[in-house]
Specification:
- The protein has 337 residues and is of the alpha/beta class.
- The protein has 14 helices and seven strands.
- A seven-stranded mixed beta sheet has the order 3-2-1-4-5-7-6, sandwiched between helices.
- α1 packs across α2.
């Protein structure tokens, strides 16, 4: 999820004042050195309510933003929050793996910094009608982009049992997937699923009491995560955008990714590790220039929020932050200037 908050010196358009960007100071610290010149291009691929974006723009007065989000409601709120930055802001409704098209449409060939803050935003979690939260009854939607046809209800009502088991195992890492799916299939034969509360009851009844007693967290958490990932194609989109992000970074550009569960973080870790290692065979006395690593890691492993942040923003507890810097020029050359 992408829980968020405004800084003390900046008004927030959300009246509840709950917009708390995760690890915001660290994100600004990591990205701002690449944005210290006029015309620098900062891409926020998961704009949300613009918590991170507003802080980055304030810290880098010469930079301009390309803000991407597939959620129309988020873009509306972000536009309000970012209005004080005027023409430095360019917002696009798209999914972040459409990055090449977004950059081409904006006339940009290279970027200086980029952030991906994965998962759900507070806007999506706290709007009950979106169906993401398992603690409130709502339609089983879970779409980040309401233009898409696939919903959680369609998955539950139309997928074959083997398909459902695969979704819950692969995207929720749910060990009780076969039990849960048997219960879902029996229940949908009586009446199609349309509400989250009914699904939660079915999941709770399917998991043995002894297993529930040993588990931490809500018994429906993994199933809801799996459905959300399937509805929105989240892991495929992440695997698609990371290589494009790296290829469009100019020399000395920086990128940061905030992940919130092991499936996301594993993809980011593998892509960043490959990019930051030489591609030459082991044992060569000299690594050819064309085989030297083009990127260097800016974080040692995955950084986590500190205790002070967690005290004020418990939703940040699962966050994992990784960042890289481009250290060698290759295609594309130059970048947008």
């Amino acid at each position: 999820m992408r829980p968020t908050n405004s800084s003390a010196d900046e008004p927030s358009p959300d009246p509840a004042g709950i917009h708390i960007p995760v690890m915001a100071d660290r994100v600004v610290e990591l990205l701002s050195p690449a944005l210290d010149h006029d015309g620098a291009v900062y891409v926020d691929g998961t704009l949300g309510m613009a918590g991170h974006a507003s802080l980055v723009l304030a810290a880098s007065p010469g930079a301009r933003l390309i803000g991407i989000d597939q959620d129309a409601d988020a873009l509306t709120l972000a536009a309000t929050r970012l209005s004080r930055f005027g023409e430095r802001v360019h917002l696009v409704r798209a999914r972040f793996d459409e990055l090449p098209e977004v950059l081409a449409d904006a006339g940009v060939s290279g970027i200086d910094a980029m952030l991906l803050d994965l998962g759900l935003s507070s806007l999506q979690i706290d709007r009950a009608d979106r169906g993401f939260a398992y603690r409130v009854d709502a339609p089983l939607d879970m779409r980040m982009d309401d233009r898409n046809e696939l919903t959680a209800a369609r998955i539950l009502n139309e997928y074959e049992p083997a398909q459902l088991v695969k979704v819950l195992r692969n995207y929720g890492e749910e060990k009780q997937a076969p039990r849960i799916v048997r219960a879902i299939v029996a229940e949908r034969a009586q009446e199609p699923f349309d509400s989250s509360a009914r699904l939660v009851r079915v999941i709770e009844s399917a998991i043995p009491a002894a297993v529930r007693a040993r588990s931490t967290g809500h018994p429906a958490k993994r199933t809801f995560q799996a459905l959300r990932i399937e509805v929105n194609g989240e892991l495929a989109a992440l695997a698609g955008v990371l290589p494009e992000m790296l290829e469009h970074m100019v020399c000395d550009a920086r990128a940061a990714v905030l992940a919130y569960h092991s499936l996301e973080d594993r993809i980011v870790k593998q892509v960043f590790a490959t990019a930051s290692h030489d591609s030459a065979p082991a044992g060569l006395p000299v690594v050819p220039e064309g085989m030297k690593a083009r990127f260097a890691l800016l974080t040692r492993g995955a950084e986590r929020p500190g205790s002070q942040e967690l005290a004020g923003n418990p939703r940040a507890g699962s966050a994992r932050l990784r960042a890289v810097r481009r250290i060698r020029e290759d295609a594309p050359s130059g970048g947008m200037r």
